[in-house]
C-alpha cells in the first residue's frame, strides 16, 4: 500500500518524519511523487560548445598553483589557471579557502560553474578532483526546507523506490501508453529521480505530464457533465415576441458573433440544466448588449435578474445604461456599498417584493440581507476579479439561477480550457462594423510636451482625452497622490480654456458619479484617472488615451485601458509614455503598437508573464501542476483534453475494465473536484 506512512520507509525516524511532513510529505506515495524541480547537468562539454553565462562543467589540469586572497570580512577568492585542451581558462572560487589545500598544480579536476565566454573564465560553484567519469551526469534538484538536506532526501527516496516502487500501479490503459509511446509508470518514476540519460528523463516527464493533464481534464469534464445533467435549473420560457421587439428597439443590428452567443445563452436558459457559461469578447465587442438581451429574456419569463460588476463606477454606468434601455419595459435598481440608510432599505424591500426586475451592483449584491423573490439569471462581469466565495454566495441566493460570466480579458485558449474546463464558453470574436482600430504609439518620457499638444489638437476638434497616471503596485495611497499631482500639472498647462477632471478610487461616490457624468456630457475635456476607468466605461467621444509610465502595466491591462477609446466613429489614439528598462517592458510596448487584437495580445501576455500571473493574485483558480506547464506543454494539454472528452463521451472511463485504475484515481481526490467546483 502506497498510502502507508513515510515512517514505514527504512531509515525514517521520528525527526526525519516530521521534517518530511514539513515538506508536505506524509505517505510513501507523497514521497515517491515528490519530483525534482530541475535537473543540473554535469556533462562535460568542450569549451567550443559552451555559451556565455551558461552553467557549465569542464575538465582540465590545474596549470598554476592556486592563489588565495582575502577581502572584506571573512571573504576569500581562490584563483588558478585551468588548462583545458589548448586553452588557458581562469578559474575563480569564492569563499572556498579550504580548496587551496586540495588543489595542486598538475591535478586533473572537473569543475562546474558559470561560464564567461568573453574572458574565458569560470566561476566555480562545485569541483571534484579527477576525471568526470565518476560523476553522475544528471543531478536532480529538489525543493527543500530547513532540516532535510539533498543527500538525505535522495537516500530516502531511493530506499522508498527499492522497497515500494513495485507497488506503484500503472494507471493508464495500455493502448493509450502504447499510442503515445509513454514509458511505464514505475520505470518513469525511477527516471524522474535517477535519470540515466536526458532522453529517458524526457520520456519520463512526458509521461507524467500527460497523466497529470489527463486526470485534471477528466475531473473538469466530469464536473461539467455533472453540472449539465444533474443540477436542476429553471426552464425559462421567455417571450419571443417581446424579446424580438426589444432587440429591434436597439440602435444597432447585432453582429453575427453576438447573435451566435445570444442563441447559445438562450438555449441554456430554456433547457432544464443550469447555465454555467463564460462569455468572452474583446472590449467593445458588445458583450453588455448581449447580456442585456439575455436579462430581458429572463424577465419576460417571469424572473428577476442581477448584474454584478467589480467597481462602483461601473455599477453606476451599467445601471444608467440598462435603465435607459429598459425604459418602460423593466424596473432596474442599483445597489452598492455606498447606498445606505433609507434608500438601501427601500431597494431591498422592492427586490424582495419583486418590484425590481433587475438589480445592478457590486458584490454588495451577495450580502445576506439581499433577498430576491425569484432570481433566475445572474451575470457576473469581469469574473476573474471575483473571489470564489463571492461566486458561491451569489449562486446560493436564488433557486439555482442561470449564471453567465463575462470577461473582456480575452483568455488564451490554453488557459480557457484549463481554468474554465468546467464551463461552456461563448466567444464574441467580431467587432461591430465601422470600428476603426486605435492607433497606438510608444513615446519616450521626454516627449511629454508633444503629447500634450497632441491632446490639445484633439480637444480643439471637440474630442476628449483620458490620461492615466502611473500605477504604484500595492499602494492605493501613492496611486492617488500621483493622480492628484498629475491633475494639478495638467490643470496648470491646460486650464482655463480646457477643463480637466480627476478620478480615483477614493473619491466619495457622489463625486465619482458627478465626474463621470461631466465627462460623458463633454463638460470635461480631459479626465485624469487611476486605473479605475479600466473596465467598461463608455464615452464614445473620447479619442485619446494617454498612459503615463506605461511600462508598469501588464499587456492585458494596457489593452483594457486602450479599449476606453475607439468606441465612436472617429479615429482614436493611444499613447504609451514610458521608458522601459528591461526587454520584457520593451516587448510589451512593441506588441501594443503592433496589434489591436485582444486574443493575440493575451497569448503574448501569457508568454511574457506565465500563467500564474495572468489573472493576478491568487484568484486565478488555476491548478498547480506538478510536472506540466500549461504554456510550454500546451500540446499535451490539448491532447489530454481530447482524450478525456472521448473517455467521458463514450463512457469508457466508467465502464471499460481497462480504465478501472484510472477511474479510481480520478475519483480518489474528491476534494480536488470540490476545488474545481469553486
Ligand atoms: P463590451 O461590453 O463588450 O465592452 P458593449 O456591449 O458595452 O461592449 O458595447 C460597446 C459599445 O458598442 C456600446 O456603445 C454599444 O451600444 C455598442 N454596440 C454593441 N453592439 C453593437 C453592434 N452590434 N453594432 C454597433 N454598436 C454596438
Ligand atoms: Mg462591458
UniProtKB/TrEMBL annotation:
- What PROSITE patterns does UniProt report for this protein, alphabetically? HELICASE_ATP_BIND_1, HELICASE_CTER
* Gene3D superfamilies, per the entry: Nucleic acid-binding proteins, P-loop containing nucleotide triphosphate hydrolases
Catalysed reaction(s) here are: ATP + H2O = ADP + phosphate + H(+); Couples ATP hydrolysis with the unwinding of duplex DNA by translocating in the 3'-5' direction
Q: Which CDD domains match?
A: DEXHc_RecG (cd17992), RecG_wedge_OBF (cd04488), SF2_C_RecG (cd18811)
Keyword set for this entry? Answer: ATP-binding, DNA damage, DNA recombination, DNA repair, DNA-binding, Helicase, Hydrolase, Isomerase, Nucleotide-binding
The highest taxon in the source lineage is Bacteria
Annotated GO molecular function terms are: 3'-5' DNA helicase activity; ATP binding; ATP hydrolysis activity; DNA binding
Q: Name one GO biological process term.
A: DNA recombination
Residue ranges the record marks as coiled coil: none
> Do you know which SMART domains this protein is assigned to?
DEXDc (SM00487), HELICc (SM00490)
NCBIfam families xref list: PRK10917.1-3, PRK10917.2-2, recG
The job of this chain, per UniProt, is described as:
Plays a critical role in recombination and DNA repair. Helps process Holliday junction intermediates to mature products by catalyzing branch migration. Has replication fork regression activity, unwinds stalled or blocked replication forks to make a HJ that can be resolved. Has a DNA unwinding activity characteristic of a DNA helicase with 3'-5' polarity.
Family the UniProt entry places it in: Belongs to the helicase family. RecG subfamily.
Protein's recorded name: ATP-dependent DNA helicase RecG
